[in-house]
Amino acid sequence: MELKKDYFIRASKQFSETIAEYYEKAKANFVIVEKGKIVMWRDGDPVIYGDKDAVLEELSNWDSVTNVSIKTERWLIDTYCKDELKKALDKEKFESEDALNSFINPRNGHDEKLVRLINLLWKKDKNAFGVILIALFKRDFNEIINADSFAGLPSDEIDAWLSLSINWEENAYNYLMHIADDGDLETIINFIRDKEYHL
Questions:
Q1: Global pTM?
Q2: 13: which residues sit within 8 A by CB, 6+ positions away?
Q3: pLDDT per residue over 78-109, tens digit each?
Q4: Alpha-helical regions (H) of the chain
Q5: pLDDT tens for each residue of 120-145
Q6: Nearest-5° angle of CA 54, CA 59, CA 65?
Q7: Among 12, 59, 116, 145, which has the highest number of CB atoms less than 10 A from its own CB?
Q8: How far lies 167's CA from each of 32, 49, 133, 192, in Å?
Q9: Distances in Å between the alpha carbon of 40 and those of 3, 15, 83, 156, 184?
């Protein structure tokens, strides 16, 4: 019988916990490894013990305790479920409210998935946005200087361009929320090429 490597995802839902919360608590839970195999229920889920005393009590009922070790549930997840954990944590991070509203938000009609990706990428490394945003500012310069949302720019076009390009980080929110469309968000995401968040 093979271990069901997504067991901790189902368990976190059962306990109404996030994957991150469940994973943190897993270092205080234990599993038994007998002859190199995890002790499991018939359905392929591992038998999890809430403390070492429970493990020792279980082992006291065994006829023979040879080639047996006690490991933490965290060890089990890190050793056997590493890929499932990474995907689950990335998905959880992607679906969080923070990912939807931490920098820009979808209230201007942008696709929520694109907004989440932009926000996660911005949080990870906002400096990666500089080159692509300056290029988009240049392309959309006429629209920017005529937009009410950019009314604070200098009236002189050269000064306005210098302000935009030098202060690209301060102008990023305004551009992304009021000038950029979904195609522009996709362009930025593809330029940065952070496949980690392409869920």
A1: 0.69
A2: none
A3: 999 999 999 999 889 888 888 888 999 998 89
A4: 7-14, 19-25, 52-60, 73-80, 82-95, 97-101, 112-125, 130-139, 141-145, 157-166, 168-178, 182-192
A5: 999 989 999 999 999 999 999 999 99
A6: 155
A7: 116
A8: 57, 55, 11, 20
A9: 7, 20, 20, 72, 50
